[in-house]
Write a structure and sequence with these properties.
The chain is mostly beta strands. The protein folds into two domains: 33 residues; 298 residues, 5 Propeller (Tachylectin-2, Chain A), CATH 2.115.10.20. The strands form five sheets. Strands 1, 2, 19, 20 and 21 form a five-stranded antiparallel β-sheet that branches. It contains one helix and 21 strands.
């Protein structure tokens, strides 16, 4: 074989290796975990112009009601392109008939206030199975109201028009709440940001607060529920999302992905009581897809719902260091989460 031919062959094999790395490795990862990306991704993308979600879009919360699917999210108008910090986030809503083709409402759900000047990480009150739970005939929503992680409460009669609770904040020092109605109690899973004796930051943990109503939530004595412990996890745990299948509780959570700079991935843990958790040996269950135009850096801030014979997981995604979050994607899992 001539030198030129050998060079061309080596070059062709190199290109094929790159292609296989970009496309087949993520496919194999999906086949192993069972979570498959929708060919219609992304579900939602950044707004345009002066839209409140023109620079960032993140932290979905999903619900299904008689009129269809509701996808709540947080959007931001500021970032590196506007030469600002990530500020003035507000909550948005998109509607769908099938859970895959979405239409944004096009306006923030709630106005910012002097204290609650940063609205993010919306969480709906749900049943343990993950379905919408209307308490006293109302939709209930919790969200972070500012950088101090005050937890705000809002209610709605139809999921479209929302009213802030005049008793806000209902809890302090909790990031990314996740709500479940368990019997007569409200369980709020959240991210706790501990500090050391010198006031320095420590790895974030997953905690739980419980109470008979939103005004009586207290930190649970079993805290912390989850801490950094697996080889893939780095720095912090965040965005807990909890639901129950049969007699087993499942928690999806995210962490920075060790060995992959500026990247996050999603893990899963199980529990028999919602308090004592065991992380899956197969973690992470969803990782960024190399070369993707919408989720090559982040997969996190997830929300999960059972939809017939499968689960839908909506998640925040990122592709660069310009937009904190760039889009909201969808993966599906057919069958049951619990091992047979």
């Amino acid at each position: 074989m001539k030198t030129s031919q050998r060079y061309l062959l080596i070059t062709a094999l190199g290109i094929m290796a790159v292609v296989l790395t970009i496309f087949l490795v993520p496919l194999n990862q999906e086949q192993e975990s069972g979570w498959i990306r929708s060919p219609k991704n992304p579900m939602l993308t950044l707004g345009s112009g002066d839209d409140f979600d023109s620079q960032n879009i993140m932290s979905p919360a999903i619900a299904r009601d008689t009129s269809g699917y509701f996808l709540f999210y947080a959007g931001g108008p500021a970032g590196p392109l506007t030469k600002e910090d990530y500020v003035r986030y507000q909550l948005g809503l998109a509607l769908s008939e099938d859970g895959e083709k979405w239409a944004k409402l096009g306006r923030p759900l709630l106005p910012l206030g002097k204290r609650d000047n940063f609205h993010a990480t919306p969480a709906l009150l749900r049943t343990p199975a993950g379905d919408l739970h209307k308490k006293d005939g109302l939709w209930h929503l919790l969200f972070c109201g500012n950088r101090a992680d005050d937890i705000e409460h809002a209610t709605s009669r139809n999921g479209l028009t929302w009213k802030k609770d005049p008793r806000n904040p209902v809890y302090k020092g909790a990031y990314s709440p996740n709500l479940v109605q368990v019997g007569e109690e409200i369980w709020m899973y959240y991210v706790h940001k501990p500090t050391n004796s010198a006031g320095g930051e420590m790895p974030w943990e997953i905690h739980l607060a419980t109470g008979p109503d939103f005004y009586s939530l207290r930190a649970h004595h079993t805290n912390p529920l989850l801490k950094i412990s697996q080889p893939w996890e780095d720095k912090n745990l965040f965005y807990p999302y909890v639901l129950m299948e049969g007699n087993t509780w499942f928690m999806f959570y995210a962490s920075y992905w060790k060995g992959n700079p500026h990247s996050t991935a999603i893990g899963m843990a199980t529990s028999s009581d919602g308090l004592n958790w065991t992380k899956s040996d197969d973690n992470p269950v969803l990782t960024p897809m190399p070369g993707s135009f919408y989720d090559s850096k982040y997969t996190s801030a997830q929300a999960v719902i059972r939809d017939g014979d499968h689960y839908k997981m909506y998640y925040g995604s990122r592709i660069n260091m310009v937009h904190k979050y760039y889009a909201i994607g969808l993966v599906t899992y057919h069958g049951m989460l619990a091992s047979p």
